[in-house]
Automatic annotation (TrEMBL), chains A, B:
Any single Pfam family the record assigns to this protein: PurS
Function: Part of the phosphoribosylformylglycinamidine synthase complex involved in the purines biosynthetic pathway. Catalyzes the ATP-dependent conversion of formylglycinamide ribonucleotide (FGAR) and glutamine to yield formylglycinamidine ribonucleotide (FGAM) and glutamate. The FGAM synthase complex is composed of three subunits. PurQ produces an ammonia molecule by converting glutamine to glutamate. PurL transfers the ammonia molecule to FGAR to form FGAM in an ATP-dependent manner.
Major place of residence: cytoplasm
Pathway(s) this gene product operates in, as recorded in its UniProt entry: Purine metabolism; IMP biosynthesis via de novo pathway; 5-amino-1-(5-phospho-D-ribosyl)imidazole from N(2)-formyl-N(1)-(5-phospho-D-ribosyl)glycinamide: step 1/2
Protein name per UniProt: Phosphoribosylformylglycinamidine synthase subunit PurS
Keyword Ligase: yes
Species for this entry: Acetobacter thailandicus
Length: 80, 80
């Protein structure tokens, strides 16, 4: 199964990379940008052929390893 | 409008970061991982209140600045 884990900084956590991109976009001719937040995608190919098992496995990986739950939230989406 | 730009390496482009994560997951007790690909999310808050205009603006930003089209593909999704 293909599973997509999306990791974003929690609301309220400062995102200097997003700030830098926002600033660059302003400078480079996009004044309509109000805020930018940056996140990560981790696409996993799992051996498991069961959607529920794949989701559970990906959630375990995300909470234990892929996301830092102090400052980040994650979502898991089974792509099929 | 909130718009999400997703940037992934094109098929066939080597992804050393994904390989490293895959290796780490194996080592750390997840043998069911066959492949890992890593990507970026850029969430934009745009002043524009028109979904179509916001999408067009985000596509311009992505193709000009946020993605390197030689090695990366992007998708744009209007979140509302």
């Amino acid at each position: 199964m293909k599973v997509r884990v999306t990791v974003m900084l929690k609301e309220g956590v400062l995102d200097p990379q997003g700030k830098a991109i926002g600033h660059a976009l302003h400078t480079l001719g996009f004044p309509g940008v109000e805020a930018v937040r940056v996140g990560k995608i981790i696409d996993l190919d799992l051996k498991s052929t069961d959607a529920q098992a794949a989701r559970a496995e990906a959630e375990k990986m995300a909470s234990e390893l892929l996301a830092n739950l102090v400052i980040e939230d994650f979502t898991v989406e089974v792509l099929g």
